[in-house]
Each structure stands twice: as structure tokens, then as C-alpha cells.
């Protein structure tokens, strides 16, 4: 099988490429990645001899067309992914998430290639903090941020191309991921590397917002399950039943890193900050038999902390610039 992985130099894509090479050695992997600030050639260095890495934009129809033509399937991770960046400058999100996905769709349509589109639970907006309600495949789209609205738009394009042109596509909407190789702008790596660089961790607002955490390897195992056995035209929700408030996660990090539970600063909250996300993954479990393997959040978090301790050369060059951008925004 010849697999084209877009965004394979980013956080989830890198982990997907690594696990694919070890668990599906028969698959020939090509990565298409623009190597934006969020993409890292170094993340793929350990497997550089086993893959083809093409530096290019998913909105470039010529590059996308020629790579799709020689592939059996496309797993589409490439996107602008950080809500705070989208609030600051939404334009790249329209370009990569909407025009980029349109370009991929046109290529898979032309060449009759299977597509799996990777999306987020943020397309559903947020849930009340105190309820038991969770997102399902039929929850209406209600995105809140420039990021989630462009991901919602990309999902709609995939649905329309499936219905109108018979494109063989599946979609997955996953909750918040954690694990190795995540950019230090994101919540968990930011707090871990704040501690490692002698900074105090930062918490938006009161920290009551709830996220439903999943280890990146569990997300990627689900993507493989959907690619192999999913029904074309369907959407699958991926989640690991692991809801936690931001303050709880931050205090877990502080405890695991030997710091006091109150050794952090409250900073200006994110504008329009979604309150709670929660996924009901029943369909994926019942129909495709997927189960998360990393069910102990604390041990996954401990391993993630160890990874950042042991891979300072990967993140240290990015850290100061990320923190100065946050500081400019009072965060
Ligand atoms: N991180 C999460 O918690 C999470 C949860 C659910 C879904 N998702 C989705 O998973 C996907 C991957 O997320 P991530 O966290 O790995 O993001 P990331 O920001 O770490 O990586 C994105 C990658 O896409 C590349 N890219 C961006 N624009 C591109 C373009 N125009 N052309 C080619 N490459 C481009 C970047 O260089 C980078 O390597 C995204 O589609 C995101 O919406 C993420």
C-alpha cells in the first residue's frame, strides 16, 4: 500500500508515521508537509531513510495531484491547528484548512483515491460544564473559533464531495491529544517546558474548562482502524473517556514534576474559550472494535514529561519565541 500522509511532520502526523512504520512495515509512506513553524523535519529524522518527505503546500494543486496519483490512500492531517494563532491571524487557517482540503479533495476525486480526513471535536462547539451530555456523530456543527470554523468547513467539503462526486472518504473528529513531539505552544507541553525552563506554568482564567484527553497513539490506532474497516461516507468520533479540567491537568503536571500545586500563574483567558468538550466513542468501539490502550492518564502524562526532559534539543529552540508571543498577549 502506498500511503500519502499530509502534515506528517506535525505532532499527530509524526506519531502516525512512526507507528505506521513499526506496525505496518508493508506500507510505503510519503509525507507532504509545508514545514510551517509547526512542522519539524527533525521529528521525522529517526525514520528519514524509510519514508519520502516532500516539502510542499497542500493547496498547491500540481504537487498534490502528482503525489495523490501515485498513492492508494491519503491520510490528511495537515492543518493550521492552534486556536490562539487563529484568533490572532485567521488567514492561514482559511488557506490550509479550507483551500488545502479542497485541493486534496479535487485530487482524490480525479484519481479515485481513498481519503481519510482527520478533524477535531471542536467543530461541535462546546458543552455546558455541569452536564453529562457528550458529542456524537449527529451533534450539530456549532464551531466557536476561527480554527474550529475552518475545520468544520473542511469537514463539510469532505461530506459534499463524498455525496456529490462519490469520493471514497471517511472523517474522524477526535478530542484533545497529548504525547511526544507536540509543539510547545500547546497546553500540556507548554506547562511541562515552563517548569523545565524555570518559568511558572500559566493557566487561562480559572482553569475550569474541561478537555477530553487522548494519547496520540490511541488516536492514530483509531485512524488506522477507520482507514482499514471504516465505512466510506461515515464520520467516526474518537475519544478515550478522559475528561479533565485544565487546572487538574496543570496540577497533575506540577505534582509529577515535584512542584507545589499552587506554583502557577493565572493569565488572561482565551477569547471565546470553549467550556467543555466530551466525546461519546460508542460507535467506534461497537462497530470497529477500537479501544484506547493508554487508559491511565497519569502514566501517559508521566511518559510525556520524560519525553520532554529527554528531548530538550527538539523543543528548546522554539521555547523563547513562543513565550514572548504569549507575553505580548498577557498570557
Ligand atoms: N492536536 C490535537 O489535539 C488535535 C485533536 C483533534 C484533531 N486534530 C487535527 O489533527 C491534525 C493534526 O494536528 P496536529 O496537532 O498534529 O497539528 P500540528 O500543528 O502539530 O501539525 C500540522 C502539520 O501540518 C503542516 N501544514 C500546515 N499547513 C500546511 C499546508 N498548507 N500544506 C502542507 N502542510 C501543512 C504543518 O507544517 C505541520 O507539520 C489537524 O488536522 C488537527 O485539526 C488535532
From TrEMBL:
Q: Which UniProt keywords apply?
A: Lyase, NAD
Q: Which InterPro entries match?
A: dTDP_Gluc_deHydtase, NAD(P)-bd_dom, NAD(P)-bd_dom_sf
Parts of the chain that traverse the membrane: none
Q: Which GO terms describe its molecular function?
A: dTDP-glucose 4,6-dehydratase activity
Q: What is its EC number?
A: 4.2.1.46
Domain NAD(P)-binding, first and last residues per copy: 4-303
> Which reaction equation describes what this protein catalyses?
dTDP-alpha-D-glucose = dTDP-4-dehydro-6-deoxy-alpha-D-glucose + H2O
- State the CDD domains in the record: dTDP_GD_SDR_e (cd05246)
Required cofactors, per record? NAD(+)
Pfam families listed in its UniProt record: GDP_Man_Dehyd (PF16363)
Q: Which family does it belong to?
A: Belongs to the NAD(P)-dependent epimerase/dehydratase family. dTDP-glucose dehydratase subfamily.
The protein, known as? dTDP-glucose 4,6-dehydratase
- This chain's source organism reads [Mycobacterium] vasticus
